[in-house]
Write a structure and sequence with these properties.
The complex is a heterodimer of chains A (397) and B (266). With 397 residues, chain A is mainly alpha-helical. Chain A has 16 helices and nine strands. In chain A, the strands form four sheets. Chain A has a three-stranded mixed beta sheet with strand order 1-3-2. Chain A has a two-stranded antiparallel ribbon with strand order 4-5. The longest helix of chain A is centred in the C-terminal third of the chain and has 26 residues, at 253-278. Chain A starts with a helix and ends in a 9-residue tail after the last helix. Helix content of chain B is 38%, strand content 23%. Chain B is an alpha/beta fold. Chain B contains ten helices and ten strands. The chains are: A mainly alpha (397), B alpha/beta (266). The A-B interface holds A 223, 226-227, 230-235, 237-238, 240-242, 244-253, 259, 263, 370-371, 373-374, 377 and B 61, 63, 82-84, 87-88, 92-93, 95, 99-104, 108, 111-113, 115-118, 120-122, 125-128, 132, 135-136, 139, 160, 162-163, 176-177, 180.
């Protein structure tokens, strides 16, 4: 039994080795091409397009969290904080919320005459990434001396703090009768992205939104891949594996960890700013603890530490959450004479999915290369052990 | 391998611990221990289990801070430097119970050792400038060279460290330390778990390291054959205190050392 499994493994490894890098490049180009033309296959404002845009934004967040949790091994349970900060950056810099100010940079002619701060969306993206990178480092500071579960507790607390600040920010004056946030009322009428030559985005045509978030995803993917294969990426994994050995080999602990927090947070902030604009409102009620867990589930289901895993995990949960459950299967229980809708039990469904994954494929959908190597080595060792024991037959366990 | 220093008189200490005391709460792990490691020498640190040898190592590499006393590297005070800074200044080490990065390949482990000598920053890594590319290439080539130098078979270079045999793991650990281009190398029980033949080979290798790479080596060792065979000087610790110091032959006959190891004869 183990004979053909070993042979199959050898065969697959041989194929993987011989498949030149060019093939994977070609595959990537093909996927990007499909991604670009995809919207033409659907009506410009269909539910599926909407779900796709949200799913891609989740994938961006999952990529960000993957840097912190997957690469550097710092269990961050407060990632929603950066969604919030990114969204508020948009609320502050791309709406009439600060109504006493009149600042306009590269915005549409219509918006140009409105009060408030109105920056071009690209500038807002950069601002969101920068602000969140700073906040990420700040939140990371108190966790530097902690390990494992304790990091989780501190980051969780920070996520909650940001949520509370968002709610109570409406009582925090920042001068001129203006407040920090609009609490549960939300900062509404935020700007839609505008690009000279393309015009303003609108929710009647979702295609430009799709291309924008796709571009953000590709950018974040690119940065992720480059970092993974760099000196910094290696340092993160070394810290994750053995902190004492890593610092003894010359890796600066503080700088390396804070960079992981900052970069992860910056991606979350970009996704947050996009969401703020796409949902047309920045509301304190959006930033719940459950969202941190939701993003973490994407990273884990995709495969901890795996870049493509984070993308697939984000897309999968995004589609399940925003398309499969509400649009396709929502009334399924009523066909069986049950009096509820699937959207009412969606967290139950996610929990169930997570348990199933942990049982059947603990390494995630697309496991990180190293983890795959480790697992195959373990299996091989177990097989060898079983083969040595007389009277047992090594087989699938 | 280390950047060539001006030829110093042999008496100069490369690494020097001055009146080190370390207390963990009420427990005194080391009391007033001084130690000189002369340049280009091999010095052994011996003593029964719990004598404070590894504690001293941890202070020399910045993992612990001494409660009192100073540590000097080439006459520069490094008592309060961080471990990564000390590595950058030229001290590298191995660990008593091997601490390789299990999920990384042997080559990647050694590349980590070179971290302190690399320059690539965040944006360099993202843009992958020609300079960064060259640095990566050179680091990889150097890592493979070092693995060959410590005697690893090329077929296991790209195996995960956790899958290597015990002896190979020890080799990779030494290669990883050498990748930091140290001037002082600290080896914590390098022959633990080795058979006499392997120990002898390692003894030879330590001499080779000192002569070819101009290293200064401080080692913790239990195997007396190795200690007597390789070291120019021996320091003996017992219960956190230095009880003897000198050439191997002197130390071997020192009654206090015999007592510490074998007990008092009544």
């Amino acid at each position: 039994m183990s004979g053909w499994r070993a042979r199959l493994r050898q065969w697959r490894e041989a194929v993987e080795k011989r498949l030149p890098r060019r093939w994977s490049r070609a595959l990537a180009v093909l996927l990007i091409a499909i991604g670009i033309v995809l919207p033409f296959l659907f009506p410009p404002s269909s539910g599926f397009m909407n779900a796709t845009i949200i799913a891609i934004t989740y994938a961006v967040m999952a990529l960000g969290l993957n840097v912190v949790v997957g690469f550097a091994g710092l269990l961050d349970l407060g990632y929603v904080a950066f969604y919030a900060l990114g969204a508020y950056t948009l609320g502050w810099l791309g709406s009439g919320f600060f109504f006493r100010l009149h600042i306009h940079v590269l915005v549409s002619p219509v918006v140009n005459s409105l009060q408030g701060v109105h920056l071009n969306f690209i500038l807002i993206l950069i601002a969101a990434a920068t602000i969140c990178a700073g906040a990420g480092a700040l939140i990371g500071l108190p966790t530097l001396r902690l390990r494992g579960d304790y990091i989780a507790i501190v980051t969780l607390a920070f996520g909650e703090i940001i949520g509370v600040v968002a709610v109570n920010g409406q009582s925090v004056p920042v001068g001129g009768g203006m407040t920090l946030t609009a609490g549960n009322l939300g900062i509404s009428a935020v700007d839609q992205p505008y690009f000279p030559g393309i015009g303003s985005f609108s929710l009647l045509n979702l295609r430009p939104w799709y291309w924008l978030i796709l571009a953000i995803l590709l950018f974040v993917l690119f940065v992720n891949i480059r970092l993974r294969d760099s000196r910094l990426g290696r340092a993160w994994i070394a810290l994750r594996e053995d902190e004492i050995a890593a610092v003894s080999m010359g890796i600066p602990l503080v700088k390396t960890k804070l960079l992981a927090y900052s970069i992860g947070a910056a991606f979350g902030g970009m996704a947050g700013a996009f969401f703020g604009s796409y949902y047309t409102v920045v509301n304190a009620a959006q930033f719940q603890f459950g969202f941190s867990i939701f993003i973490l589930s994407m990273v884990i289901i995709g495969g901890l530490g795996s870049i493509w895993g984070a993308v697939v995990g984000g897309l999968a949960l995004g589609y399940i959450n925003n398309y499969l459950i509400p649009d396709v299967l929502n009334n399924l229980p009523s066909h069986f004479g049950l009096n509820f809708q699937l959207t009412q039990v969606e967290f139950g469904i996610f929990g169930f999915l997570l348990v199933i994954m942990m049982l059947l494929r603990p390494q995630g959908l697309i496991p990180e290369r190293r983890r795959k190597l480790e697992l195959t080595a373990q299996i091989a060792a177990e097989d060898a052990q079983l083969a040595e024991v007389p009277g047992t037959v090594a087989g699938p366990t | 391998m280390s950047t060539a220093e001006a030829p110093a008189p042999p008496a100069v200490a490369a690494l020097r611990a001055v009146h080190i005391t370390k207390r963990f709460g009420g427990l005194e792990a080391l009391r007033d221990v001084s130690l000189d490691v002369p340049q280009h020498s091999i010095v052994s640190l011996i003593g029964p289990n719990g004598a404070g040898k590894t504690t001293l190592f941890n202070m020399l590499t910045g993992l612990y801070r001494p409660t009192e006393g100073n540590i000097l590297l080439n006459d520069r005070d490094i008592t309060h430097a961080r471990p990564d800074e000390i590595t950058g200044l030229g001290v590298a080490r191995t660990f008593q119970n091997i601490r390789l990065f299990g999920a990384m390949t042997a080559t990647e482990n050694v590349m980590i050792g070179h971290h302190a000598r690399m320059r690539a920053g965040l944006f360099g890594a993202i843009l992958r400038t020609p300079r960064v590319r060259r640095e990566e290439r050179e680091t990889l080539a150097r890592a493979r060279d070092l693995l060959a130098y410590v005697g690893l078979r090329e077929s296991v270079f790209d195996r995960l460290a956790s899958q290597l045999s015990y002896g190979d793991q020890r080799r990779v650990e030494i290669a990883r330390a050498l990748a930091a281009e140290p001037s002082v190398l600290l080896l914590d029980e390098p022959t633990a778990g080795m058979n006499p033949m392997e120990s002898r080979a390692l003894t030879e290798f330590m001499r080779k390291l000192r002569d070819e790479l101009k290293l200064t080596i401080l080692l913790i060792e239990h195997d007396m054959k190795v200690v007597m065979g390789v070291s120019e000087r021996v320091t003996v610790l017992d219960y956190g205190e230095k009880i003897a110091e000198g050439e191997p032959a002197e130390v071997r006959t020192d009654p206090r050392v015999i007592e510490a190891y074998l007990g008092r004869q009544n």
